[in-house]
C-alpha cells in the first residue's frame, strides 16, 4: 500500500491520490512494483533469451555459470538482440499509429471518413511539394489522396530512402549513408529486426546495433514524422494556447471524460462530440453542469496542443484519475494504457471504454471506433459517459485541488513563426551566449524512480543554466504541472534565457507535443543546422529521458543519437550484462553517428552532463564554452 507517498512522487496531487488509494484499499502500479521486488537480475542486465525453444537461456553475469546459451550466443549477442527487439517494438508502435492516421487521411480524401477534414491546407500543399505532387487545378482532396498513397508506400517500400529523411541536413544524410544505416521502408526495417534476432541469424552485436539505429531512423524521420504531419493536416498544426494541468482539472459538478492513449483520430472526435448541444443538454438532464474532457498521456497532449483541452496527468496518474471517483468514462485506444484499469474501474462507477480494434483489455466496455462513422460513435461514447453521471458516488469523490496553468502548442512552425519565420533570432541568442543551447527532455514515468522528480529537477537545472528546453510526452505534462510551461517560469531561468523568454512572452520550456511529435524537434534541429550550414551533431544540444520505461522510448533514444544528439537516460536500460553493447552505446556510436548515450539517474548530474556537452559543442562552433 501507499506508504511513504513522499518517496513515490513529488507531485502533491499524486501524493494525495496515493493516500486515498491507501484508505480505499486500492492497489496501484507503485504497489505492484513493490510486489515485484526483487526484479529479475538477468532481465535487468538483458542476459536472458527466449528466442527459441532450446532455451530459455541466461548468462551468469558473475562468470561462475554458463557464459553462453544452448546455441552458443554470448551475453553480447543476447543483449544486442534483445535491444533490437525493443527498438522494433517501439518503432512499430509509433509507425502503426502513423499508418492508421494515414488510412484515416486517405478515407477522408475519398469522402469515406465523414467528420474529418483538411484543417491545414498550407501544410498539405507543403507536403505535396515535398512529394512532387501537382496541386494545379486539383481539389485539396485529390492532392490529399495522392499524398496518402505515397505516405502509405513509405511503409512497404523495399528500397529507400524514406522521403522525410531528406529533411535531415545533407551532412547527416551522408553520415547515415556512410554507416549503411539509411532506412528503406519502415515495415521492412522492423521486419528485418525480427528476422535478424531469430535464432541463428545475426550474431554480431555491432552489426545488430547498427540495424537498430537504421530502424529507429525509420521511426523518427519516418513513422513518427508521418504521424505528426498527417495529424497536423487533419486537425491543424498547433499554435500557442493556454490550458490547465493535473488532476484538479476534473470537475466536481460536470461529467468527466478522460481520453487516454495516443491517437487523436479518436480523441479529436470525443472532444467534438462533448461539445455537441444534444450531449450537453443530456448532461444537464442527468444533473450535471456540463461535460468536461481531459487527457492522460499523449492523446491528451494532442488535444492539449490543438484545443487547449486540459491534461489530467501523465502516465503514472492514469489509475489515480479513476481513484478520484469523479471520472464517468476513461476512453482509451492504444499504448501506455495499463491493463490494471479494468479491475480498478470495476471498484468505481467509471466506465473503462476500449475503442481500438487492436487493443482489448480485461474489464473494458468495448465500443469499437470506426472512421466512417467517427462522430456518431464518439457521441455514443460520450452518451455512455453522460448517462453514467447519476451513478457517481459523491461520498467517494475526492478531486485533488492542484491544477496549474500552462502555455502549450509550440510546433516547429509556431516556434519559427514566433521568431519571425526564421531560426535566426534563436541562433543569434545562442551565438551571443544568452541561450547556451537547447535541451530536449522527453519520455515517460517509471515507478523505479520518484514520479516527476527526474523530469522537473533536470528541466529546472537546464533552464537555470540558460539552456532552452523543448519537451514532449510525459515530461511535458510533468513540466505543465510544475508551472514550468508558463511565461512567468522565465523567472526560474538564467538571466540570458529569461530575457529572451520575456522578450518573446514564451515559457523557458516549450511543449512541442506528444511522443511522435519528437519529430517536430528533429525538424527544428534540422532548420537550425541548415541555417548554420552544419550537421545536427555540431549543435549545442542534448537530449534526456529521465524516467523512461517504454519500448517506444528505446526507439526514440536510438533515433535521437542517430540524428547526432547526445542523450542521457535516467533509468538504466537492460544492456549492462554486455560490456560490448554498453561500450558501443556509450562510446562507439560517437564515431559512427557523432553522438552516444549516457546513463545518469541523478537529474542534477544528468543536467551537468548535458550542459558540459553543450559547452563542448559551443566550443566546436567557435562560440566559446
Ligand atoms: O508516447 S512518454 S509513458 S504516454 S511512451 Fe507513454 Fe512514455 Fe508517456 Fe506517450 Ni511516450
Ligand atoms: Fe538459448 Fe540461443 Fe535459443 Fe536464445 S536463441 S533461447 S540463447 S538457444
TrEMBL record:
**Reaction catalyzed:** CO + 2 oxidized [2Fe-2S]-[ferredoxin] + H2O = 2 reduced [2Fe-2S]-[ferredoxin] + CO2 + 2 H(+)
Superkingdom of the source species: Archaea
Q: Does the keyword Secreted apply?
A: no
Q: What is its EC number?
A: 1.2.7.4
| Gene Ontology molecular function | anaerobic carbon-monoxide dehydrogenase activity
The cofactors required by this protein are: [4Fe-4S] cluster; [Ni-4Fe-5S] cluster
SUPFAM superfamilies noted in UniProt: Prismane protein-like
Family (UniProt):
Belongs to the Ni-containing carbon monoxide dehydrogenase family.
The protein in question is named Carbon monoxide dehydrogenase
- Origin species: Candidatus Methanocrinis natronophilus
Amino acid at each position: 500500500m501507499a506508504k511513504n507517498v513522499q518517496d513515490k512522487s513529488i507531485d502533491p496531487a499524486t501524493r494525495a491520490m496515493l493516500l486515498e488509494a491507501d484508505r480505499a484499499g486500492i492497489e496501484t502500479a507503485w504497489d505492484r512494483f513493490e510486489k515485484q521486488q526483487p526484479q529479475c537480475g538477468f532481465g535487468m542486465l538483458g542476459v536472458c533469451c527466449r528466442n527459441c525453444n532450446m532455451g530459455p537461456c541466461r548468462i551468469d553475469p558473475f562468470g561462475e555459470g554458463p557464459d553462453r546459451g544452448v546455441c552458443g550466443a554470448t551475453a553480447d549477442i543476447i543483449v544486442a538482440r534483445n535491444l533490437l527487439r525493443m527498438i522494433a517494438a517501439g518503432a512499430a508502435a509509433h509507425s502503426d499509429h502513423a499508418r492508421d492516421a494515414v488510412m484515416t487521411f486517405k478515407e477522408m480524401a475519398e469522402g469515406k471518413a465523414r467528420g474529418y477534414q483538411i484543417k491545414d491546407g498550407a501544410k498539405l500543399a507543403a507536403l505535396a511539394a515535398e512529394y512532387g505532387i501537382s496541386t494545379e487545378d486539383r481539389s485539396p482532396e485529390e492532392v490529399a489522396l495522392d499524398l496518402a498513397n505515397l505516405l502509405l508506400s513509405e511503409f512497404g517500400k523495399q528500397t529507400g530512402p524514406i522521403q522525410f529523411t531528406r529533411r535531415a541536413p545533407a551532412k547527416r544524410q551522408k553520415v547515415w549513408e556512410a554507416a549503411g544505416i539509411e532506412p528503406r521502408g519502415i515495415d521492412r526495417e522492423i521486419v528485418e529486426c525480427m528476422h535478424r534476432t531469430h535464432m541463428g541469424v545475426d550474431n554480431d552485436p555491432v552489426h545488430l546495433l547498427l540495424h537498430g539505429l537504421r530502424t529507429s531512423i525509420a521511426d523518427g524521420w519516418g513513422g513518427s514524422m508521418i504521424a505528426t504531419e498527417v495529424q497536423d493536416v487533419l486537425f491543424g498544426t498547433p499554435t500557442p494556447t493556454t490550458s490547465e494541468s493535473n488532476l484538479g482539472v476534473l470537475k466536481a459538478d460536470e461529467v468527466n471524460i478522460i481520453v487516454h492513449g495516443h491517437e487523436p483520430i479518436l480523441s479529436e472526435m470525443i472532444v467534438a462530440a462533448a461539445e455537441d448541444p444534444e450531449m450537453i443538454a443530456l448532461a444537464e438532464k442527468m444533473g450535471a453542469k456540463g461535460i468536461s474532457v481531459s487527457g492522460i498521456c499523449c492523446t491528451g497532449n494532442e488535444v492539449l496542443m490543438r484545443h487547449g483541452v486540459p491534461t489530467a496527468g501523465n502516465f503514472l496518474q492514469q489509475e489515480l484519475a479513476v481513484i478520484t471517483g469523479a471520472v464517468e468514462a476513461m476512453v482509451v485506444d492504444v499504448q501506455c494504457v495499463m491493463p490494471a484499469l479494468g479491475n480498478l474501474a470495476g471498484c468505481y462507477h467509471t466506465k473503462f471504454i476500449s475503442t481500438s480494434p487492436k487493443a482489448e483489455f480485461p474489464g473494458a466496455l468495448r465500443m469499437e471506433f470506426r472512421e466512417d462513422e467517427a462522430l456518431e460513435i464518439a457521441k455514443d461514447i460520450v452518451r455512455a459517459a453522460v448517462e453514467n453521471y447519476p451513478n457517481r458516488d459523491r461520498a467517494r469523490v475526492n478531486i485533488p485541488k492542484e491544477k496549474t496553468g500552462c502555455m502549450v502548442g509550440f510546433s516547429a512552425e509556431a516556434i519559427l513563426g514566433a521568431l519571425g519565420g526564421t531560426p535566426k533570432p534563436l541562433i543569434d541568442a545562442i551565438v551571443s551566449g544568452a541561450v547556451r543551447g537547447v535541451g530536449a527532455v522527453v519520455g515517460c514515468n517509471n515507478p523505479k524512480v520518484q514520479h516527476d522528480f527526474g523530469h522537473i529537477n533536470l528541466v529546472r537545472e537546464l533552464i537555470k543554466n540558460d539552456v532552452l528546453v523543448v519537451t514532449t510526452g510525459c515530461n511535458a505534462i510533468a513540466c505543465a504541472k510544475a508551472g514550468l510551461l508558463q511565461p512567468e517560469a522565465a523567472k526560474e531561468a538564467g538571466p540570458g534565457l529569461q530575457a529572451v523568454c520575456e522578450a518573446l512572452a514564451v515559457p523557458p520550456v516549450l511543449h512541442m507535443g506528444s511522443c511522435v511529435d519528437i519529430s517536430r524537434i528533429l525538424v527544428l534541429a534540422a532548420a537550425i543546422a541548415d541555417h548554420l550550414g552544419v550537421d545536427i551533431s555540431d549543435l549545442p544540444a542534448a537530449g534526456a529521458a529521465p524516467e523512461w520505461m517504454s519500448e517506444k522510448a528505446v526507439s526514440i533514444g536510438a533515433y535521437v543519437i542517430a540524428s547526432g544528439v547526445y542523450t542521457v537516460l535516467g533509468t538504466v536500460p537492460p544492456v549492462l550484462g554486455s560490456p560490448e553493447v554498453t561500450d558501443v552505446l556509450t562510446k562507439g556510436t560517437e564515431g559512427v553517428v557523432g553522438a552516444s548515450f549516457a546513463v545518469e539517474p541523478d537529474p542534477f548530474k544528468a543536467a551537468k552532463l548535458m550542459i558540459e556537452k553543450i559547452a563542448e559543442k559551443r566550443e566546436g562552433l567557435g562560440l566559446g564554452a
